[in-house]
Design a protein that fits this description.
7-stranded mixed β-sheet; 5-stranded antiparallel β-sheet
């Protein structure tokens, strides 16, 4: 069975809160093996915080990987995380993100996938350079999802090795984007370059990437996935 990954849509709220509710969000075409993948991003001020819970119609959505960027010298920092849940029925879902602290905003980006095998193990890296690269081993027929956030300047994100699906600039001083890649054959590794064009020490950025194997490729799994932070 092939893995089919589809970008469904996005939504953003700028309300300054610890809890954000996105009602009746499209989750794509019904399928018995449908997995809903949700990238969550936001800007906060203060000590690094993350969501304490993400739910879809009241059901817990599992965290796959997350990152907090450094602060920009004034306490502002970005958050990016990728979550997933199996939802075989229904065309929409109410998605709730409960942060562990005050966030200025919350953005969600929704993908669906069918024919998914296993999530591959993840690893962390901390970098202070741009462009930054992720090396992801990808099984034949597998797929990658990347989420990245920048803050402090009008910083343009550009990607090599993945297809950018959506970009948002909320304040004129940040950018958040998601991207994907569907592999035809196995690649060890596939290099994904994320260029933030950082210009000063107060620019902050973070990115997270996850890799799934197709269900037909379970016997070929090589541990893979990466996360970076700038």
């Amino acid at each position: 069975m092939s893995l089919i990954l589809t970008f469904i849509g996005k939504s953003t709220q700028i309300s300054g809160s610890t809890s954000y509710t996105f009602s009746a969000q499209s989750i794509g075409t019904v399928a018995a093996d449908r997995k809903v993948i949700i990238a969550v991003m936001g800007i906060q001020q203060g000590s690094a915080a993350t969501p304490v819970a993400v739910t879809a119609d009241g059901n817990a959505v599992a965290l796959l990987k997350q990152v907090n960027s450094p602060n920009d010298g004034s306490g502002n920092r970005g958050y990016a995380g990728i979550f997933a849940i199996d939802i075989p029925s229904g065309a929409t879902a109410t998605i709730v993100v409960n942060y562990g602290a005050f966030f200025f905003d919350c953005s969600i980006y929704v993908y669906t996938a069918t024919g998914v095998g296993s999530l591959i193990a993840t690893s962390l890296a901390s970098l202070q350079t741009s462009p930054a690269s992720l090396d992801l081993n990808v099984a034949g027929g597998g797929a990658v999802v990347v989420a990245a956030i920048t803050y402090n300047l009008t910083i343009t994100q550009s990607y090599v090795g993945v297809i950018q699906d959506a970009t948002d600039n909320l304040y004129g001083s940040d950018q958040r984007a998601v991207a994907h890649y569907s592999a035809g054959g196995a690649e060890s590794p596939r290099t994904v370059s994320v260029d933030y064009t950082l210009t000063s020490g107060s620019d902050v950025a973070g990115a997270v990437a996850i890799s799934y194997a197709a269900i037909a490729d379970l016997s070929l799994i090589v541990p893979m996935a990466a996360q970076l932070i700038q």
